[in-house]
Amino acid sequence: MGLAGRQTLDSLYPQARKLQFELKMQMSYLDSGRTGGRTDAELQAEARANLSTLEQLLWQLDSLVQTSAKPAERDTWAKKLQQLRSETHALGSTLEQHIYSVNRRAVEARERESLMSRRNAGFDSGNGAIYAAQESESLQRSSQMVSDLTSLSQSILGDLGEQRNRMKVRPGGRTN
């Protein structure tokens, strides 16, 4: 491979930043429900693909910092990449949380529809106990889903707090 085809830090870093911006926009669209004529699933798939590409670019950039960056510039590049990596990780967590929420809402909607159709079907008293038990189980599953979502949210908030604290600390132990 000649020098013209060789990827450099200066060429890959702007690509990574642009891709990260696109991912942020996609997350904004997903959160707001404005999908621009695409389905939520299509936008999620595009966001996942961008996240994967961005992670690959970060891996390439890490490799280039170690192999081709001048020693005096390595710390600067390492800091830039760490910030990019942290933001990418946060976006990935947000995307996974969104997908998890969408999937949970779909399951809950199906269960709710099933419950309502059984309840409205005019079941007889012999089946009433069975249906009541099924409703109870469904309610327990829904309660567990809410608990899982709350735990996931708390975990993400904790990670973001830790990330914020790490970003506040400067070299030498000084804080902003």
UniProtKB/TrEMBL annotation:
Biological process per Gene Ontology, one example term: vesicle-mediated transport
Record localization: Endomembrane system
Keyword Transmembrane included in the entry's annotation: yes
UniProt xrefs under InterPro entries: GOSR2/Membrin/Bos1 (IPR027027)
Signal peptide: none
Membrane topology classification: Single-pass type IV membrane protein
Keyword list, A-Z: Membrane, Protein transport, Transmembrane, Transmembrane helix, Transport
One annotated GO molecular function: SNAP receptor activity
GO cellular component: Golgi apparatus
Protein name (database record): Vesicle transport v-SNARE N-terminal domain-containing protein
